[in-house]
Amino acid sequence: MPRKMTVKKARQAKRENKAPTTQAGEFVHEEIEEIRQGKHGARSARQAIAIGLSKARRAGVKLPPPGKGRASEATRTKAKRDLEKAKSGPTKPSPKRSKATVRALKREPKSSVSHQALAKQTSSATRRRRQAAAKNRSSARNGARRSR
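The structure assignment produced for this chain is given below.
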Protein backbone atom coordinates (compact mmCIF):
# COMPACT_ATOMS: atom_id res chain seq x y z
CA MET A 1 0.00 0.00 0.00
CA PRO A 2 1.57 3.30 -1.05
CA ARG A 3 1.98 6.07 1.48
CA LYS A 4 -0.49 8.97 1.37
CA MET A 5 2.35 11.40 0.72
CA THR A 6 3.40 9.44 -2.38
CA VAL A 7 -0.15 9.41 -3.77
CA LYS A 8 -0.41 13.14 -3.01
CA LYS A 9 2.84 13.89 -4.91
CA ALA A 10 1.69 11.79 -7.87
CA ARG A 11 -1.65 13.63 -7.99
CA GLN A 12 0.19 16.95 -7.81
CA ALA A 13 2.32 15.86 -10.80
CA LYS A 14 -0.88 14.95 -12.67
CA ARG A 15 -2.38 18.39 -11.96
CA GLU A 16 0.81 19.92 -13.39
CA ASN A 17 0.21 17.85 -16.57
CA LYS A 18 3.36 15.81 -16.05
CA ALA A 19 3.73 12.54 -17.96
CA PRO A 20 2.41 9.30 -16.40
CA THR A 21 6.00 8.05 -16.13
CA THR A 22 6.85 11.07 -13.98
CA GLN A 23 3.84 10.37 -11.77
CA ALA A 24 4.87 6.72 -11.48
CA GLY A 25 8.41 7.79 -10.57
CA GLU A 26 7.15 8.80 -7.11
CA PHE A 27 6.05 5.21 -6.46
CA VAL A 28 9.33 3.78 -7.75
CA HIS A 29 11.22 6.20 -5.49
CA GLU A 30 9.10 5.10 -2.52
CA GLU A 31 9.82 1.44 -3.27
CA ILE A 32 13.56 2.07 -3.43
CA GLU A 33 13.41 3.89 -0.09
CA GLU A 34 11.48 1.00 1.50
CA ILE A 35 14.13 -1.47 0.36
CA ARG A 36 16.96 0.76 1.58
CA GLN A 37 15.25 1.08 4.97
CA GLY A 38 15.14 -2.71 5.19
CA LYS A 39 11.37 -3.23 5.08
CA HIS A 40 12.00 -5.87 2.39
CA GLY A 41 14.43 -6.66 -0.40
CA ALA A 42 14.37 -7.15 -4.15
CA ARG A 43 16.14 -9.58 -6.42
CA SER A 44 17.31 -6.78 -8.71
CA ALA A 45 16.90 -3.09 -9.42
CA ARG A 46 14.51 -4.03 -12.23
CA GLN A 47 12.28 -5.88 -9.76
CA ALA A 48 12.21 -2.87 -7.45
CA ILE A 49 11.21 -0.65 -10.38
CA ALA A 50 8.55 -3.15 -11.48
CA ILE A 51 7.02 -3.23 -7.98
CA GLY A 52 6.91 0.59 -7.95
CA LEU A 53 5.24 0.73 -11.38
CA SER A 54 2.68 -1.87 -10.29
CA LYS A 55 1.86 0.22 -7.20
CA ALA A 56 1.50 3.30 -9.41
CA ARG A 57 -0.94 1.56 -11.77
CA ARG A 58 -3.00 0.29 -8.85
CA ALA A 59 -3.07 3.80 -7.37
CA GLY A 60 -4.61 5.15 -10.58
CA VAL A 61 -1.67 6.43 -12.63
CA LYS A 62 -2.63 5.91 -16.28
CA LEU A 63 0.63 4.21 -17.18
CA PRO A 64 0.12 1.97 -20.22
CA PRO A 65 1.39 -1.62 -20.16
CA PRO A 66 4.72 -2.20 -21.93
CA GLY A 67 4.53 -2.75 -25.68
CA LYS A 68 4.81 -6.10 -27.39
CA GLY A 69 8.42 -7.23 -27.50
CA ARG A 70 9.45 -4.96 -24.61
CA ALA A 71 8.23 -7.29 -21.86
CA SER A 72 6.89 -10.81 -21.46
CA GLU A 73 3.23 -11.64 -22.05
CA ALA A 74 2.81 -12.30 -18.30
CA THR A 75 4.18 -8.84 -17.43
CA ARG A 76 1.85 -7.15 -19.91
CA THR A 77 -1.14 -9.11 -18.55
CA LYS A 78 -0.21 -8.13 -14.98
CA ALA A 79 0.08 -4.47 -15.98
CA LYS A 80 -3.38 -4.59 -17.61
CA ARG A 81 -4.79 -6.21 -14.46
CA ASP A 82 -3.23 -3.48 -12.30
CA LEU A 83 -4.89 -0.80 -14.43
CA GLU A 84 -8.26 -2.57 -14.06
CA LYS A 85 -7.77 -2.78 -10.27
CA ALA A 86 -7.35 0.99 -10.18
CA LYS A 87 -10.70 1.49 -11.93
CA SER A 88 -12.56 -0.86 -9.57
CA GLY A 89 -11.25 0.94 -6.47
CA PRO A 90 -9.25 -0.36 -3.51
CA THR A 91 -9.99 -3.82 -2.17
CA LYS A 92 -8.84 -5.43 1.05
CA PRO A 93 -5.79 -7.59 0.32
CA SER A 94 -5.68 -11.22 1.35
CA PRO A 95 -3.67 -11.40 4.62
CA LYS A 96 -2.16 -14.79 3.70
CA ARG A 97 -1.03 -13.60 0.30
CA SER A 98 0.34 -10.33 1.69
CA LYS A 99 2.33 -12.14 4.35
CA ALA A 100 3.70 -14.64 1.83
CA THR A 101 4.79 -11.85 -0.52
CA VAL A 102 6.51 -9.87 2.24
CA ARG A 103 8.25 -13.00 3.58
CA ALA A 104 9.53 -13.85 0.10
CA LEU A 105 10.78 -10.29 -0.45
CA LYS A 106 12.45 -10.20 2.98
CA ARG A 107 14.71 -13.05 1.86
CA GLU A 108 15.94 -10.98 -1.07
CA PRO A 109 19.02 -8.73 -0.83
CA LYS A 110 18.83 -5.03 0.04
CA SER A 111 21.89 -4.26 -2.09
CA SER A 112 19.79 -4.47 -5.26
CA VAL A 113 18.93 -0.77 -4.93
CA SER A 114 22.36 0.54 -4.01
CA HIS A 115 23.62 3.53 -5.97
CA GLN A 116 25.94 1.22 -7.89
CA ALA A 117 23.16 -1.26 -8.77
CA LEU A 118 20.79 1.51 -9.91
CA ALA A 119 23.55 3.09 -12.03
CA LYS A 120 24.21 -0.29 -13.66
CA GLN A 121 20.47 -0.75 -14.36
CA THR A 122 20.23 2.75 -15.84
CA SER A 123 23.18 2.29 -18.18
CA SER A 124 21.98 -1.13 -19.37
CA ALA A 125 18.48 0.25 -20.04
CA THR A 126 19.99 3.15 -21.98
CA ARG A 127 22.10 0.73 -24.01
CA ARG A 128 18.99 -1.33 -24.88
CA ARG A 129 17.10 1.82 -25.93
CA ARG A 130 19.99 3.03 -28.09
CA GLN A 131 20.29 -0.33 -29.84
CA ALA A 132 16.55 -0.35 -30.55
CA ALA A 133 16.70 3.22 -31.89
CA ALA A 134 19.67 2.39 -34.11
CA LYS A 135 17.85 -0.65 -35.46
CA ASN A 136 14.79 1.48 -36.28
CA ARG A 137 16.95 4.10 -38.00
CA SER A 138 18.70 1.52 -40.16
CA SER A 139 15.43 -0.17 -41.16
CA ALA A 140 13.94 3.23 -42.06
CA ARG A 141 17.02 4.00 -44.15
CA ASN A 142 16.73 0.67 -45.93
CA GLY A 143 13.04 1.33 -46.61
CA ALA A 144 13.87 4.72 -48.10
CA ARG A 145 16.50 3.12 -50.30
CA ARG A 146 14.06 0.54 -51.63
CA SER A 147 11.47 3.18 -52.56
CA ARG A 148 13.89 5.08 -54.82
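Interim note for the steering committee: The helical segments are 4-15, 20-37, 45-58, 73-88, 95-106, 115-147. The chain has six helices and no strands.
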